[in-house]
Amino acid sequence: MVQTSVPASRRVHEIDAVRGFALGGILIANIGFFADPGYAVGNGTLPISEGPVALVVSTLVLTKFYVIFSFLFGYSFTLQMRSWGEKVKPRMLRRCLALFVLGVLHGFLLWIGDILTLYATLGVLLLAMRNIRPRTAVKAGCWIIGVMSVIWLLLAGLVLLDPGSVTASASDAAAAARAEAMVTDGPLGFLRFQAETYPMIALLVWIGQGPMAMALFLFGLAAGKSRLLEEPERWAHLVPRILWVGYGVGLPAALFFTWSSQAGDAMQLAGLGINNVTSLLLAAAYVVTLLQLIRRVPAVGGALAPAGRVAASNYIGQSVLACLVFTGYGLALAGRLEPIAVMGVAVVIYVVLLALSAWWLRHHRQGPVEWALRRFTLLSGSRPEPPRPAGTA
Q1: Least CB-packed of 86, 192, 249, 281 within 10 Å?
Q2: Confidence of residue 10 (pLDDT cuts 50, 70, 90)
Q3: Separation of CA 68 from chain center
Q4: What are the beta bridge partners of residue 10?
């Protein structure tokens, strides 16, 4: 296939905008855990698990946006491959090491659901598979998703044969109350909660999201090698089909996922198995809708892209601001706000970070976390460079 020539260092505005959009969904998905820390040690119900807010968040947000973020990680790796050339192996290994260390610090100090350690580890696997053909990468990703879905469905069948109780126990309630008390008991209390909880949650994240993240890395790798987002005219004719399938199948399946998460162990496992596939369809529809909107209203892309360019700084920044609101680091409001108020806090945090990202990039080329990662990755001691015109890297 003949590919159009694209400068190796060129940033793709649309990728930055989609990444900035995904950050908003990740914030909404994560903030419920800050607002309701008992979820991490309780009976497994969703955070802020009752009422219309929970219905909307579980149906439209949960499991949808980390799919987009994982896909973009794989896609961005291909951009780095073009930029780094023969130095891609040592640089990617250093970058993954830096991400892993950052993730451990993030997990223990701020956010027990940190994803960076998982991304760093899977990034090493992606590096080893960097020469795989796009079609083979897609097939491998499909196999991973298919196998994981079958495993969830088989587990659902086993649970049906030997059903267990799904009611919350007194110990669950006591553990949840203890978690909330620790989180709001000043900085030391919160750190004690992090130290006790993060290792267990990290293991669950690796098991629950690891295979799917690797599949999306491979999809992103294939798309990046094919320059899919850089040449949207090649798939423009598929837009109506993507939207019809994404929303027509993805939305009903997302409603089933929400219902099944509260319906019992077997149905919850079945919902997870189905959601493994259908969350990708709905996430694809989100991305295509956003790209269509950006074409018609460029200001939308202009508002989102700065946050996407400094995504790592925003990811950490979300945790910092959420901690200042909900934990003993700050106002200690965990367990005190209604779900709609929690979503209001999420909107405020997101808008603040969008504005800060745009302001920062008027004075700097990279975000503070991105600068530190780049410095270690390239082993460069240079100072942060002045801003460049939009569209360059």
Answers
A1: 86
A2: low
A3: 7
A4: 392
